[in-house]
Structure formats: C-alpha cells, structure tokens
Amino acid sequence: MPVDMRTYLGHVELVNPITTAAGCAASGSELAQFFDLGRIGALTTRSITMAPRAGRPTPRMAETPSGMLNAIGLQGPGVDAFLERELPWLAQRNVRTVVSIGGGTVAEYTALARRLTDAPGVSAVEVNLSCPNIEDRGRVFARDGAASAEVIASVRSVMRYDVPVVAKLSPDVVDVVSVARACVDGGADALSMINNPLGMSIDTEAMRPSLAAVTGGLSGPAIRPLAVRCVWQVHAALPSVPIIGMGGVLTGRDAFELILAGACVVAVGTALFHDPYACLRILRELEELLAARGFHRLADAVGLAHRPPGASTRHRIDLEESSL
Amino acid sequence: MRETPVTPVQVTGTVLTTRRVDAYHALTVVAPGIAERFRPGHFVAVAVGGAQTSMLTRRAFSIHDVKPDYSGTVEFVFTVRGPGTAWLAERRARDTLDLVGPLGRPFPLPRDPVTCVLVGGEYGSATLFPVADVLQQRGCRVDFVLGAASADRVFGALRARRMGETTTLTTEDGSLGLRGRVTDVLPGVIADVRADVVYACGPMSMLRGVTAVAVEFDIPVQVAVEERMACGVGVCMTCVLPVIGDDGVTRMVRSCVEGPVFRGERVRFDDVGTIPFDALGAPGGGSRNAG
Asked: How many Cβ atoms from other residues are within 10 Å of residue A46's Cβ?
C-alpha cells in the first residue's frame, strides 16, 4: 500500500514533504530541465531582495569534507524581475512556491512582503533572517530573538492571512530554542532550520583563504548532525509548530532522520549540485523507508523519535489497526 | 546567432578506455544521450569519488571528442589537480561514471566558409578539435595556434598538424615550437592567413591576451572560459564572471549556463574575480545591502 506522503505547512497542504532549500534551485527552470517541479512538495526560491544584487566576488565556493563552503552573497535579479518573470513562470506550471526573502532592515523585509501579497502563486514566504542587519552594524537578525521577532511580526502584519510566514533560523546561536520561540511569538506560522553555519577554509597551496569573501556558509552532510539537533530541540519545545528541516540531506534516510526529529517538510540543498534528480530520488527512498517500517502516513513519523524510551511504535500502530 | 541550449541528461556511463596524453589524462566513456546531443563547446559535469564519497561537487570537463560507437561515447581530457581528479585518473575500463551533460552553450559557427584561427592553451585545445571538425565540414579554413609552458603540456599538436592548414606551436621554455606565448605569434598568424574569426580555449590570462589581439584586428573572437563550478547546471551560482550584455550592462553571469562560450570582448577579463562597481546589483550601486 502506498504511504500517504501529504504534509502541511501551516494550513497549506503539500503533496509530499520534499522541497528545495533556498538558494539551491536558482529560479526553478534550471531543475525543470531534469524533472517536473510539480512532483515535489514545493520549490523554495533563492532569497529575493528588493534591488538586483551582483553577490560576492569569485572564488565563491570551496569543497570541504562531506560539505562545501559558499559565499554567493544573495546574487539575484531583485523583486521586480522576480515578479515579472520567475514567479509567473512557476505559477503557470502550478509549482507550489515558497518565496524566500532577504533584506538588511526591517523596513526592507516589510516592503518585500508587501510586494508579494498581491502576487499569485506564493504558497508561503520564508524569511531569511541570516542576512546582515544594517540597522545593527552588520550583525544578523537570526542571532537575536528580539530582532528576528521584529522582522517576522512586521512581515506577518502585511502578508496575506492565508500565506504562512516561515522563519529561517541559523544554528550559529547560543540557544536556538529561544530564537525559535521569539519568532513564533512574533507570528511565525512555521520555522525552517538550519541555515548555513559560518565556516572557513584556507588553500594551503596559495596559503590564503579559499573564498574571496574569506568566510562562507557551510552546507552538506557535514552539518546534518547540527540540523538534527536544532530540529529536535525546537520540536521538543514547540511541538505544534511545523518545521522545515534541512542540512545535508543526501538520501531518503537523511530526510527520515529529520522527520523523526520533528520536521514535517524536508528541504534538499547541496545534494542538488551533485545530483539534479536528488529531490525525486530522496522522495522515493523516503517513501520506501516509511513503507518498510510499516507507516501508512508520513504524518505518523513526524517527531516520532521523541517518544519516551520503551514506547513501541509497532504497538501503537497495531492498536490503530485493530477493530477494538 | 546563439544556438538554443539542448536538454541535458544524467547518465551512468561506462569507461571504455583510459589513456595518458603527455601530462594529461583522457577518458573515453560510453554515454548515450550525451554523445548524441553534443555540439562543439559543450561540457560534462562528472561526479567523483564513488557512491560514499565526501566530495560533493561535480567536476566540469569540456568534451574533446564524441563517437557513435556503442551508441555514443564522449571523451574528455583533464589534469590531476586535487583528490577528485586523482580519483578520476585511477578509473579503468568498465568502471562506471555518473555524468550530466551536454551542458553549456556551444560555439556559434559561421554560416559561410571563412578562415578561422583556433587558439588553445594547455589542455584547453581539447575543446577545439570538434570545432575544427565542424568548421572544415562547412568549408572553413582552419589554422591552429597551440601553446603551453612546456612541450609535455601542449595538447593535440599532432592532430592539429593533421587537421590545420598551418599549426603554430609555442612553449614558454622553448621545448617545442617557438619560445613564448600564443599571443606572441597570434598577430602574425592572423595577418598571414587573413583570419576572419578566432576561437580560443585555455587559461583566463591567455583568453584575455587572445581577445586583445582579435580586437586589435577587429575580428570576432569566441572564447570558452574555465571557471570553477560546483553543479554545472546553473543552480549553485559559483561560476560567475562579469560579462557585458547586449544592452551594455555588465552582469555577473554563470559560465555554466550563459557560457562557457562568450564573445571575447564581452568578458571583462581584468575584472574576473571581482564585482565591478558598475555591474548590475554591485554593492553601492543603489542596492546597498551589506553581505
């Protein structure tokens, strides 16, 4: 029997829990050469900014063991070009789209959100809180619960009520749970984690930093344990808040791990660079894994690893299936 | 005129032959789907390290040759630069390789039979032979200028001598051909053969020099750039370089999908590795937004 893979992001139903991670699927058309984007739960765009951005200089990428560092610098065409070309392209194809937004000030996020309110085809808005905060001398919003909550509250206040606002959290904080709680209190309908932690590598031939920007975001399987920990902690504290889990998901087993920790949606990022078909493969592997473990619904697996020791899933499922 | 991009495919290829060519390695891989879609200038993105590898990014190689054998083979040439290419160099016949391709925009070809100078630096010349094939089929005259630091790093000298009307070789140490660089001899070759167009592939510094020469002669120059890529399919945004568009605006464009072939004079070689202040969306250009 096929597993019911439907999941919910707030009240938005997704046909399955697989999405792309922000910044890893460009505008969507690049991946559409390989597969029908309608087959994944949602496509998350790169972070859209108000004005066009040229990003950081090259080299922008360095491969690290089981990961990579990137310093792209939110390169993109700006919100006008996005609304004119990219979003309609996705909407025409009925791709459920999570629009990631990035800004330097609260006002910029709010203005972006306002631009998106009338745009058709926005399934959810993901607020990238890891952009440097100009108002606070270059610190990132995500490092501070109050600053994050301010951005979220402002975006929530202008966003259409039926479009969930998702706060994207960074693991580079002392207490991810308190930032998560602040965002939810500020009006976030869901949380996504983790954004890239900051890393660095040095080219030992040139004896200089590998990236032009010196530091960059670390992604790939190298950060998966960090992602599992963050999702686990936040789900334990806020069990009713939907979580988009991401961080080094290469296989269905990796996605399952994040789901067991509490994620109801799983985003695939760096894996797309290695395998353009990664989303579909991971979805298939996840479904097979769930079926092999006797699950009829994906929803039954969300956060399941939190059950107390000794509680048996088998027992619970048996009870559900009995006619008593 | 730009050719429309073809749809790339991902295939599991089987290594047919491996060989050493002086300082380089050449792998011939049975890759149906890629071979039949190939046009000169296309490249492939190859996964390295096997299924359980810790190396996540693909390595991009321009295609040197395609043959219809075994329903389609592709050959690419590379040099060992790190653990990924070292792993590739250890592949043997019947090993499998995960390839995505053909990728990128191929070389635009002239409609009329014209005289073309093909300039290759190091193993960048590998890309030029399929171009030469098609040009000759269209009745073009083809002349080669190949160069490298030393004789063992000049790729394809023999094949160039067989195919080209003339072949000029340069090495920096003088171990083969003329001592010097391709740009030292290129003006003479262009003048002698009365070239109409230049095609070039090689290191960025060479492409800059070749472009300058072609601009001097006021003839078109098509260059295939080498930028480091992670995905090859346009999603990772790591392989950008500043290129001037039809509208005169400089943009940071992806060499994997907008390139790797560009009109030489459109690439701002002096600014590669920077964000020119006048590029669209450059910091300070009205989009001030730290980070």
From this structure: 27
